[in-house]
Amino acid sequence: MNAIETVGLTKAFGEKHAVDALDLTVKRGEIYGFVGRNGAGKSTVMKMLAGLVLPTSGEIALLGEHQKPGCTSRRMGALIEEPGVLRSLTGLENVACRAMSLGVVDAERVAAETLQEVGLADAAHKRVKSYSLGMKQRLGLALALVGSPDLLLLDEPFNGLDPQGVRSVRDLIVSLVRDRGVTVFVSSHVLDQLERMVTRYGVVREGRLVKELSTEEVEQACADHVLIRCAAPQFALSVLQDALPEGRFVMLEDDAIRAQNITSEEAGRALAGSGIVISELSVSHRDIEELFIGLMGEEGSAESQKANGALLKRRRAEKGGWSPCLA
Ligand SMILES: Nc1ncnc2c1ncn2[C@@H]1O[C@H](COP(=O)(O)OP(=O)(O)OP(=O)(O)O)[C@@H](O)[C@H]1O
Fold first, then answer.
1. Cα–Cα nearest to 3, from 151, 145, 147, 187
2. Is the pTM of this model over 0.90?
3. d(CA 106, CA 94)
4. Quick check: CB of 301 below 6 Å from ligand 1?
């Protein structure tokens, strides 16, 4: 059984399709990282899954149950933007109210335990209006967790957290999946945090799912590779393919060759043996940020392309990096 399944899920705001015929499948027990540029449609998807926004069309099934428009599963907890809290009540009172509304037995004790779990025990009796941004974020997480959900939707869970908070929320997410079999659907712009916990990624662009990647595929795409610039690059490519059949070669936009699964020495020997003049032979590593910037913006608007192009150019200049091309 899948935890989330959408078919043709669409949300239009006037003429604008914020989410456009999205077919999404998240398996039970996954930590699915949902990534995309600002305005790509991530929060709108989350809100439709949580029953906070009515879809224009399409179907949603959560934990195997078809959802009526605007409704959602009681087995799901959600942290989406500003959680609805009563600012004049304490954190404990807010979470206990939520627990009671979900029919949790011994609501106050469970609320106190949940606040402990998210690192907010010390502030449990303080009024929410005195909470910092990070404390409010932890409270939102407690509200999402208090009903022991089987599915968690987390929209930007690291917002406002200090480094220690980021780490403890990340550890909590991983332990919920490992120990309780919870499925997590999480959006975040903090890619290096996602990288440490996600099992699969979905890239959304202009309301459409444009790419899904397993962690292995991301590792492969970011693995060390050899960059070769030389005279007659097309000829050089065929020489390399013939001489080193175990290698994986990609011709980049600027006529450089990217090679994986071979060493720079092997590439150098093969090219020199054919008399090809090499102008650059280096080993590099593409980081996850660069990979995803490429995926999020490949066919975006002219404006986003321009912005991505400038950023990539700068990063390449800084680090001797690569074009956004997923082999
Ligand atoms: N209530 C609304 N009315 C009109 N347009 C909306 C509304 N909510 C979202 N949008 C538009 O829908 C698009 C998707 O917005 P959404 O908030 O889902 O993006 P996002 O990927 O979550 O962005 P971010 O990373 O900045 O949070 C944007 O163009 C946004 O302006």
1. 151
2. no
3. 15
4. no
Q: Pick the residue whose CA is nearest to atom 25 on ligand 1.
A: 38
Residues 6 or more apart in contact with residue 135 via CB below 8 angstroms: 91, 120, 123
pLDDT digits (tens, 9 = 90+) for 63-95: 999 999 888 888 999 999 877 789 999 999 999
Query: Does 43 contact ligand 1 (Cβ within 6 A)?
Result: yes
Q: Are residues 125 and 25 in the same domain?
A: yes
Same domain, 68 and 165: yes
- The ipTM value here is 0.97
- Which residue owns the Cα nearest ligand 1 atom 12? 18
Residue nearest to atom 17 of ligand 1 (CA): 43
Q: Ligand 1, closest atom to CA 189?
A: 25
Same domain? 253 vs 228: yes
301 in any annotated domain: no
Q: How many domains, in total, are found in the chain?
A: 2
Q: Which residue has the higher pLDDT, 285 or 101?
A: 101
Residue span of the structural domain in which 278 resides = 224-286
Domain end point (choices 169, 185, 218): 218
